[in-house]
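Hi support team,

I've been running sequence recovery on a batch of backbones for a student project. Most finish fine, but this one hangs at about 90% for roughly twenty minutes before it completes. I'm not sure whether the input is malformed or the queue is just slow. I've pasted the structure tokens below so you can try to reproduce it. Let me know if you need the job ID as well.

Thanks,
M.K.
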């Protein structure tokens, strides 16, 4: 019995954890976590010091990418929106023009006023006359619908428009030197002929863009010096799209109702009722403009007798036919250094003014011929329509063709032959083996 009791008392009693023991365990866990975090921070610091030693320090003025993205994108979206015409209110136009205080010009369409945006950009505001007929409304829609969707260095830019129950107005970029006719037909003749040559090429490029590079072909219908505006550097921009029309590029002709264009610049096909009108009518008008640049005069002058007309394009053809075109350019006051370019321009004008629309070159070809570097083929006799108005005079010559091919002398077309200018000048031919 005593032995059994002794054995029972020798076994250990269960361990009981009290409050002080729990506090000790928690304290130890916290210390372990703190030591681990200290070691981790120490390692991170050493790694940062190592990267700093290897990589160059960032400039103190460097802007983080996230700081610049937002304003840059906002500016981009704003500029993107500004590519389309803006609709202004009548009150805004009144403020832009200082209550229409400066008039730039006027005509049957209305008046043009000088203005300025709040950011200092100068503008020209064309306020259209409204009447009982729909012609003004049609011109308004033609301008917004055509020039509003085009952007080219040689086309005037349309910033926006205003249309409400009281006003129809168009807001354009301001052109410092006005229209070409004011410089071309003035007595002082401040523009040098070389600058006029550049104006001719720039104008041709603008029309070529309308005809051949837009998603829909744009026919201007009123090409003339008065519709060629000059900026501060006398660079040309085609303007006034009130008669312009959009047409599909695959259309061979468009149907025209009513009278279009300006007398003296109209293609002969307008004289015939229901005759197909193509974009080549702009080419004819541009040809008349070229004649006026060569002669620095209007294409038609009325003599002392009202029945006597001095038509310069016919005179150019007569001198060309006699081989005396160079003498004509001299008589027009063109200096010797510019006469070769003037003679070339006169021949291009004869091509543009052909009776048949198909015989007239596309404007991209006109640009190429004006710029030089190609040999211009002799043009057929134009102006048959002056003596006979009928469809026969507008048919293309039997030898016409717009295709191009290659010969041993170079690339040829109906209007020009490609040659190297220096080789052509010295009559050098390529040797054949």
């Amino acid at each position: 019995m005593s032995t059994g009791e002794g054995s029972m008392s020798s076994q250990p009693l269960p361990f009981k954890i009290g409050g002080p023991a729990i506090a000790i365990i928690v304290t130890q866990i916290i210390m372990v976590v703190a030591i681990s975090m200290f070691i981790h921070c120490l390692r991170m610091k050493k790694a940062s010091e190592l990267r700093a030693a290897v990589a160059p320090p960032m400039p103190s003025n460097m802007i983080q990418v996230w700081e610049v993205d937002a304003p840059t994108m906002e500016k981009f979206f704003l500029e993107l929106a500004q590519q389309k015409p803006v609709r202004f209110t009548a009150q805004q136009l009144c403020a832009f023009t200082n209550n229409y205080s400066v008039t730039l010009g006027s005509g049957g369409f209305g008046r043009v006023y000088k203005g300025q945006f709040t950011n200092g950009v100068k503008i020209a505001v064309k306020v259209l006359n409204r009447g009982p007929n729909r012609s003004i409304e049609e011109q308004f829609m033609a301008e917004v619908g055509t020039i509003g969707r085009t952007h080219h260095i040689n086309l005037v830019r349309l910033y926006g428009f205003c249309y409400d129950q009281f006003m129809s107005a168009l807001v354009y970029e301001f052109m410092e030197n006005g229209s070409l006719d004011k410089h071309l037909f003035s007595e002082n003749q401040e523009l040098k002929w070389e600058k006029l040559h550049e104006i001719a090429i720039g104008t041709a490029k603008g029309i070529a863009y309308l005809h051949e590079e837009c998603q829909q072909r744009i026919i201007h219908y009123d090409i003339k010096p008065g519709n060629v505006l000059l900026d501060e550097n006398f660079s040309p921009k085609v303007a006034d799209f009130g008669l312009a029309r959009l047409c599909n590029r695959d259309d061979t002709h468009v149907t025209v109702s009513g009278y279009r264009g300006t007398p003296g610049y109209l293609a002969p096909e307008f004289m015939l009722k229901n005759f197909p009108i193509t974009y080549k009518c702009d080419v004819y008008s541009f040809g008349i403009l070229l004649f006026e640049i060569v002669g620095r005069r209007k294409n038609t002058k009325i003599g002392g007798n009202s029945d006597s007309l001095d038509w310069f394009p016919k005179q150019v053809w007569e001198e060309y036919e006699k081989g005396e075109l160079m003498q004509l350019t001299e008589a027009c006051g063109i200096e010797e250094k510019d006469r070769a370019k003037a003679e070339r321009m006169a021949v291009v004008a004869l091509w543009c003014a052909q009776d048949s629309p198909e015989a007239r070159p596309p404007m991209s070809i006109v640009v190429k011929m004006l710029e030089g570097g190609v040999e211009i083929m002799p043009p057929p006799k134009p102006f048959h329509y002056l003596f006979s108005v009928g469809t026969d005079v507008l048919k293309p010559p039997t030898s016409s063709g717009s295709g191009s091919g290659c010969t041993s002398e170079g690339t040829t077309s109906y209007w020009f032959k490609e040659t190297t200018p220096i080789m052509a000048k010295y009559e050098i031919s390529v040797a054949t083996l």
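--
Follow-up from support: It reproduced on our side and the slowdown came from queue contention, not your input. The radius of gyration is 39 Å. No action needed from you.
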